[in-house]
Design goal:
Helix content: 25-40%
CATH class of the largest domain: Alpha Beta
Keywords: Amino-acid biosynthesis, Aromatic amino acid biosynthesis, Cytoplasm, Transferase
Oligomer: single chain
Largest sheet: 4 strands, mixed
Structural class: alpha/beta
CATH topology of the largest domain: UDP-n-acetylglucosamine1-carboxyvinyl-transferase, Chain
Shape: globular
Pfam family, one: EPSP_synthase
Family: Belongs to the EPSP synthase family.
Subcellular location: Cytoplasm
Number of domains: 2
Bound molecules: shikimate-3-phosphate, phosphoenolpyruvate
Strand order of the largest sheet: 22-23-1-24
EC number: 2.5.1.19
């Protein structure tokens, strides 16, 4: 069943100054992992601040289908985990909806179990490449019993009696691939090594260590990370407070920068250095973002952000920064549309395999709204129109992609003419509170 069968359009219009203080919902990456590791570890895990987006809730359902007990009491999620090595064979296919992270990490988690597991998803997820995860799993002894053409979902895995540890060099910058191999290693005797030439978000390494796994991370002279994990660890339940999602904070942040007169505070955003590439880039563009109350909570850096309207300048974004802001390029492109001069973004090959081909979706959305841009194979150049003159009036195709929907709604708040997105329903996959929080700040979205 597709929960989003009927598209629901939304329109954003030029707004009065945005003001107020908001807390964005919990980080999506940490929330998925909290449900997974809590469901796997022995004993009780308690989670506050969990992102209750559709993607994460589907991960919770999958863990329940494999034996975990998960319930919500007040503002807290309480999990009774099965114990590492003790997941049960699900009786029905696991439906991951729109979620790349949920599906790919779970393929790693269950792939090395001697059982059969089927993965299904929506039209967007069914187009996304899964071979990147299936290839290392096959090396570990996992059989892919069925898959759609090109190693796509729906697909069925059958684990071996005893998986083989491997040393695997991740061929693309992907935290999901790295994580899938590390999770497969949990049910594999011996030491599995993941070699990561380009560092990506490190939530899996940090959180697994917190749950009791033994991992060693070494960075060699070339900057390549070698992550060694011992198989079959005893994992025990933890208490987790999920920090605010910087990828969600990106939308009110860029909105406040673009709408004249705005002054907004975003409280409790995760500041893990593998996630702050957008803030670094916006600061280089001349953004007025104050980083306040820096603190560490549960092993993660956090801060409050005060963001005020700013005249932005175009910049060249270093391709090496891409993994640290990979989900933020659509909204960065929107910021660039209002900047003086040209913004050049390169090293964007991974954007082609997200919920949509984000490079193409962004370029078409900009063009539909009067912004001049050039789409290369792995790059995007945006020529800005300071003040937003001549921007807007178009309808953007979202292709079941929440970040495309939110980015172009932010664009409409500062554009000369309103901007419509063809479907707002997918926003609930990662940021269900988006509309209420934005309109609470004064955004005109209907
Ligand atoms: O590991 C994660 O939680 C994520 C990794 C990234 O995907 P890739 O690994 O495909 O880059 C990112 O785009 C996604 O939203 C979340
Ligand atoms: C790419 C994203 O998510 P996923 O890969 O989990 O679907 C995203 O949230 O922007």
């Amino acid at each position: 069943m597709n929960a989003h069968a009927t598209p629901v359009p939304a329109t954003a219009s030029r707004s009065q100054p945005l003001s107020g203080s908001i807390k964005v919902p919990g980080d999506k990456s940490i929330s998925h992992r909290s449900f997974m590791f809590g469901g796997l570890a022995a004993g009780e895990t308690r989670i506050t601040g969990l992102l209750e987006g559709e993607d994460v809730l589907r991960t919770g359902e999958a863990m329940k289908a494999m034996g975990a007990r998960i319930e919500k009491q007040g503002g807290e999620w309480i999990i009774q985990g099965v114990g590492n090595g003790c997941l049960l064979e699900p009786v029905a296919p696991l439906d991951f909806g729109n979620a790349g992270t949920g599906s790919r990490l779970t393929m790693g988690l269950v792939g090395t179990y001697d059982m059969k597991t089927t993965f299904i998803g929506d039209a967007s997820l069914s187009k996304r490449p899964m071979g990147r995860v299936l290839d290392p799993l096959r090396e570990m002894g996992v059989q892919v019993l069925e898959a759609a053409q090109g190693d796509r979902m729906p697909l069925t895995l059958r684990g071996p009696k005893r998986a083989t540890p491997i040393s695997y060099r991740v061929p693309m910058a992907s935290a999901q691939v790295k994580s899938a191999v590390l999770l497969a290693a949990l049910n594999t005797p011996g030491v599995t090594t993941v070699i990561e030439p380009i560092m990506t978000r490190d939530h899996t390494e940090k959180m697994l260590a917190g749950f009791g796994a033994t991992l060693e991370v070494e960075t060699d002279a070339q900057g390549v990370r070698h992550i060694r994990i011992e198989g079959e660890p005893r994992l025990t339940g933890q208490t987790i407070a999920v920090p605010g999602d910087p990828s969600s904070a990106a939308f009110p942040m860029v909105a406040a920068l673009l709408v004249p007169g705005s002054d907004v505070i975003i409280e409790g955003a995760l500041m893990n250095p593998t996630r702050t590439g957008l803030i670094d880039t916006l600061l280089e563009m001349g953004a007025n973002i104050e980083i306040l109350n820096r603190r560490n909570a549960g092993g993660e850096d956090m801060a409050d952000l005060r963001v005020r309207h700013s005249e932005l300048k175009g910049v060249t974004v270093p391709p090496a920064r891409a993994p640290f802001m990979i989900d933020e390029y659509p909204v960065l492109a929107v910021a660039a549309a209002f900047a003086e001069g040209e913004t050049v973004m390169d090293g964007l090959e991974e954007l082609r395999v997200k919920e949509s081909d984000r490079l193409a979706a962004v370029a078409r959305g900009l063009e539909a709204n009067g912004v001049d841009c050039t789409e290369g194979e792995t790059s995007l150049t945006v020529r800005g129109r300071p003040g937003g003159s001549g921007i807007g009036g178009g309808t953007v195709e979202t292709h079941l992609d929440h970040r495309i929907a939110m980015s172009f709604l932010v664009m409409g708040l500062a554009a000369e003419k309103p901007i419509t997105v063809d479907d707002r329903s997918m926003v609930a996959t990662s940021f269900p509170e988006f509309f209420d929080l934005m309109t609470g700040l004064g955004a005109e979205i209907a």
